[in-house]
Amino acid sequence: MMNTPKGTIAVTTNPQQGIVITLETTEIFLATLVSVSILSGVAIRVISKMNTISSSITQIEKALKEQASNTEKIARLDRTLDLHIQEYVNRKDVVQMLMGQLDQKINHKFKRLLFYTRDIQRFLQKGGNFTIREYEENTEEE
User: Fold this and answer.
1) CB contact at 8 A, 121 and 132
2) So what's the pLDDT on residue 137?
3) What 8-state DSSP symbol labels residue 113?
């Protein structure tokens, strides 16, 4: 004869089916709700910080673009100013050169006039009793 082990099987004859709420299931449910609310609060804070950082980055990008535009404008103005300064220096040099030429012409004409007047004075002295008076400039009326 064979020996077969005999086992017992538990069979419930409870005809009610439904959810059984115990203290442990309530505690697990409440702990899950608290954890989900804490995680959602953390997620909301992280998302708001990310939005703040994103808007800050956007503002910085706009500021950098404006700065780059201003830098280009300043560079153009600097080049224009350099051109105007060079033009001023060139005009100043031309005016100084012209003034120097006019001064040389005036001195040359004055010296020629002085030589002509001396020649005339010598001629007049040889021919008669012509006396040369020294010219003095008087600012007072005579």
Assistant:
1) yes
2) 60
3) H
